[in-house]
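Final report, results section. Input specification for complex C-07:
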Amino acid sequence: MYANEMEDKVVSPEKAEEAKLKARYPNLGAKPGGSDLLRKRLQKGPKYFDSGDYNMAKAKMKNKQLPSAPTEKAEITGGHIPTPQDLPQRKTSIVASKLAG
Amino acid sequence: MAGSGGDMQWCFSQVKGAIDDDVAEADIISTVEFNHTGELLATGDKGGRVVIFQQEIENKNQPQFRSEYNVYSTFQSHEPEFDYLKSLEIEEKINKIRWLPQKNAAQFLLSTNDKTIKLWKISERDKRPEGYNLKEEDGRYKDPNAISGLRVPVLIPMDLMVEASPRRVFANAHTYHINSISVNSDDETYLSADDLRINLWNLEITDRSFNIVDIKPANMEELTEVITAAEFHPLQCNTFVYSSSKGTIRLCDMRASALCDRHSKLFEEPEDPSNRSFFSEIISSISDVKFSHNGRYMMTRDYLSVKIWDLNMENRPVETYQVHEYLRSKLCSLYENDCIFDKFECCWNGNDSVVMTGSYNNFFRMFDRGQRRDMTLEASRENSKPMQVLKTRKVCAGGKRKKDEISVDSLDFNKKILHTAWHPQDNIIAVATTHNLYIFQDKVN
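Structure output:
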C-alpha cells in the first residue's frame, strides 16, 4: 500500500522539467521535434532583405570589431570631391587566426 | 607507444590561442582533426581559417618523450558569401576538416563550410633554383647579347616554406547546411551530408556529384527528422552510416542500389514510452557518429550520453556511458538558453579501448571500455603548467557537496567543449575550448 503511494509521488526528473517548461510557456506545442523546430534548424541565420542590406550589416560588424582604428587620412567632408588618393585604404578582411599567433 | 587504456595520467602539454579575453567570434574553434599519422593537427574556426600544427618530437628514443605541436601552415579556407537567391548569408565557418591519406610528399585535406567543400594541398618548399641563363636573380630578362656562356641552374636550400593551395572546389551541390564529410577507404571518393541529403563525390571531379541519400519529404510539412552526421566505414568502401535527429542510425550499402534511401540496417534503441517527455526527442538527437578504427563498432553521441553499437546488433547499443546525467534535471533551462541543441562530438583512441567526449565548464570525459572506468578532466588555464598532471573532476548533482567537487549550478554553460581529437597511435589528445586548443599527453606515453 505504501509502495504504491511512493510510486505516485516519484516523478522522473525529465517529466518534472517538462512540467516546469509547460508552466512557463503554456502555448508550447505538444510535438517538440515537429516540423517547426526542424524547419527553423534548416534555415539558420538571419534573413536579409537583399545583398545591400547584407553588406551594410557586415560593414557595421566590422566597425564594431575594429573599434579604435585611427584614420590615416584627413576626414573627407561633403564640400570636397574625394580622389582615389584621399580615400582610406580598404583594410584587408583577412586577419590571422590567434591560434597561429 | 600504443594508445591503450591502462592507467592513463594526463598531463598538460600546450595551449594555443589568445590568453586574454581579446577574442573575436571569428576565433571560435569549430573543428579539430589529426591526420592519419598524427604528425599534423588541423583546426578550423568560425572565421573560415585553417591552422595546421606539426608535431616535433624531442628525445624520441627516451621512454618519456615530449612532443610539441607548432604552427606549420595557416590559410583562409572559406570566405563569407551571400546567397542572392534566398537573401541568406553563407557562413565561412569551417564545419569539418578531413585529411586524405598521404600518397606523396604533399598533404591533402578537405575542408567544408555550410555549402562548399574544398580540397587543399599543403606542400613544402625548401629549395629554390638559382643560376638561370636567361633571367637575372630578380626575374628580369637578361639582354640576350650579353649572354656569353651556358650553365645548368642548381637547386639551393632555402628556408622552409609551407604553401597551401586550393586544388578543387566542390560547390553548388547542397541546398541545406553541410554537417559532415567523410573520405572513403577507396581513396577516390568522399561523401558530404547536409540536413536532408547525402552526396557522393569523386575527389578529381568537381562539376558532378551523385546523390545517394535523400530524405526530403514531398511536402515539407511532413518533415520529421533530419540527417545529423554521416561517415564511411573505415575498411568497407561500400558501407556508410548516417544518424538522425530522432536518435536512429542507418547503415547503407552502396552496392544495393544507386539511391540508398532504404537502409541495410537500422540501429535504434527502444524507448520506454512511459518515460517519454517533451525533451525525449531533442536529447536523443545524435550529434556525432564515429566508426571504431577496426570497423566493428560505431559510437554515437546524443545530448546526455555516448553509446557504442556493435554493427551486428541493431536493436540496442552494447555500451552506454552517461556524460553528464546531472543535466537531466536542468533540461528546462537548457532548452531556454538553447544549450540543449549543442552538438558535441566524440572520438576513439587508437586501439578503440577508450572513448572521449566534451561537456560544459570546459570539462571533458573519457570512458575506458576495458577497465569500465570513466574520468572527468578540465581544460583550463589554471592547470597549464608544463607537464602538470590533470586532477580528475567531479560534479555534485545535489545534496552535500564534498570538497573539490563542483555543484551543477556553478557550471559555466558558456564554456563548452564540443570538439576533441585523439592521436591515431599515441595517447596525445587535442581538446578545443571556445577559443583555445589544449594538447594533453599521457605521462606514461
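The first helix of chain B runs from residue 280 to 284. Chain B touches chain A through 54 residues (CB under 8 Å). This concludes the modelling results for the funded period.
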